[in-house]
Amino acid sequence: MSSVELIVTHPGSAHKDDFLACSALLALHEVAIERRDPEEEELRNPNICVVDVGHEHDPERRNFDHHQFPRDHPPICALSLVLQYIGVYEDAQRFCEWLEPAEWLDCRGPKDTAEYLGVGRDIINKLNSPIDITLLRRFGLSSKIEPGQPLWEIMKMVGADLLDFLKTLHARVEFVAQHAEHWEIENGKGSFKVIYLPRTEPLPAEPSMGIVRYVEEQGLGEEVIGLVYPDRRGQGYGLSRYKDHPDLDFTRIEAEDDVHFAHKKGFVAKTSATEVLRLRELLQIAWQSE
Length: 290
Known about the structure:
Blueprint: E1 6-9, H1 16-28, E2 33-35, H2 40-43, E3 48-51, E4 57-58, E5 63-64, H3 78-86, H4 89-95, H5 99-117, H6 121-126, H7 130-141, E6 144-145, H8 150-179, E7 181-186, E8 191-196, H9 207-217, E9 224-230, E10 237-241, E11 259-262, E12 268-271, H10 276-286
Parallel strand pairs: 1-2, 1-3, 3-5, 8-9
Antiparallel strand pairs: 2-6, 4-5, 7-8, 9-10, 10-12, 11-12
Helix pairs in contact: 1-3, 1-8, 8-9
């Protein structure tokens, strides 16, 4: 495979898809980004990645534009094409809930995206944050982004984290599958199911992330209402609702001596307890089903 020398993307206003597409490529190729229209010979040069411009999709030549697709083509953006090239697009579709709205926004605009998501048009803008605004603005104002510049370093981190998440996801789920216990908790009013991940050495970087994906992969979403997993900030455990199930309310345990945090909305708590019997007892107290 030939090496990459440069990434070229369009000038002017920047969007989430070209920013993230370039970020993902930076995680693989630590080269400069130039924001300008590509030369014809650059479209033919596989050593230059051309992103979201050029009216050509040719992964072998590393050209990743979608604007030439017909109007009725399923929503797909430059980021989608780059993730396909890297070989992680199918996992991204399954596990990155933000990807489909990003594709729709780039291809169909905010009005159609809002209708597709079943929300009001004003909701789309309300989901923006200063992080989105600043990074895209700074990217749009730049003509060349090079290694060592703060924006380049941030983009590389974003791309590296995205690819790390996608490439290690199956290993995280497999780790949970090997260690997780399925608990049936009873308290005299009935029973409910919880997934418990015991503390191991070494501890996974983000234990709660893998356990959520495990529940989805195993098709347990209709049965499980709670999760228990090692707390990365201490020796105890985190307790949380699965999919914000209303029957668990962790404000009911906030006065317990070994509970040092319970969110006021009741969806998560942290405890110094480590014994299985005590963890199960806290879950019994938090359960409020009649």
